[in-house]
Amino acid sequence: MPITWPKDESTTEELDGSAIEFGGRRIPSRYFLAPLAGYTHHAFRLAIRELGGLGLATTDLVLATRLLSQHPKSLELIETCSADCPLSIQIFSGKKDQLVLAAQWLEDHGYQGVDINMGCPMAKVNSQGGGARLMCDSTEAAELAACVVAAVDIPVTVKMRLGWDAESISAPLLARQFEDVGVAAVTVHGRTRQQGFHGQVDLEGIRRTVEAVSSIPIIGNGDVRTPDDAFRMRRETGCHAVAIGRGAMLDPWIYRKIQQRLAGQTPIEPERDEKIRFLCRHFALMTQQHADYSCVLFRKFAGWYGAKLGIPEDLEDRLRRFESVSEFDAIVGEITERYGTRTTSIPTALIRVPNGPVERW
Ligand SMILES: Cc1cc2nc3c(=O)[nH]c(=O)nc-3n(C[C@H](O)[C@H](O)[C@H](O)COP(=O)(O)O)c2cc1C
Prior knowledge:
This protein has 17 helices and ten strands. The chain is α/β, with parallel strands linked by helices. The chain folds into two domains: 20-262, Aldolase class I (TIM Barrel), CATH 3.20.20; 272-360, no CATH class. It has an eight-stranded parallel beta sheet. A two-stranded antiparallel ribbon has the order 1-2. Helix 1 packs antiparallel against helix 12 and helix 4 runs parallel beside helix 6. It starts with 19 loop residues before the first strand and ends in a 10-residue tail after the last helix. Flavin mononucleotide is lined by residues 34-38, 60-61, 90, 117, 119-120, 159, 189, 221-224, 244-247.
């Protein structure tokens, strides 16, 4: 018997399940993949897209200067293919000129959308004036966005937080200014920079940002883990689309389930074989880009996938340490045999158990 997703009381009737258009692009679903540095690479995006229901995906943040100097790591981050569409490339810098040049470079190389990061809370990004630091000076931020918009024909979007801290909630003002200068859409993570990833997402703050603009879409983001969370985000904030980050790693089928719910169906949990196919597919796609180094890159997905994919704890631990493709295959064989013997449904990644040296995580 397939396991079915618990039915909830909320209705999806009033939610618009249709495609969304902005910046001249038609995005087939309103449920997007939020950028997650270190995770939202080509292989992950393709594997998730193949499950169905995903709208726009955005790459990890790419430092503008590194893109311009053709740094191999940056070129890896922007690697894509015709199946990896629609896609936006996220760039960051504290310097206007660098963002402009990077956006032009992306347009010249055929990319269809550019997203400016104004939400990253990391000190090394903020200390150079990039990421969430840009939200501290709304005039400067709007001018920067205006320059990038003027420099390219492809749509320019911005991803930001509610503000720097609780005393400086600048998202509504900024969103309005971005709209005025031609930004095509704005994603808002409903936390301040000071909150990092702590505390509750403030849906009211996102709603105020939605109300501040008149025609561009606002994409709500933060803590969406289930279709119900996504519908609640839309209903309570009025946002036009939802970007899901960690929720897509905890449940790669979330987009498909959302579409099933919008179609009035009860989403069906994938069964063992589909889950294992997904695990293998993600790894195989990764090896196409990174060959044997995939064994290192894939390890950090173990703690996110373990619970949903029904991987017994000791095998999840082995996935965190495996060294070769043949070892991966052997672990998959054991997962198939021992599927369903996991003792906890809580994802390890949420418990954040320190598990050996960080480079092995
Ligand atoms: C590991 C990790 C990496 C992230 N990398 C980026 C990034 O490169 N660019 C960005 O705009 N946001 C980044 N974020 C923020 C997410 O896009 C998102 O705003 C945040 O995680 C809240 O949404 P979620 O609860 O759906 O994950 C990152 C978050 C995490 C946890």
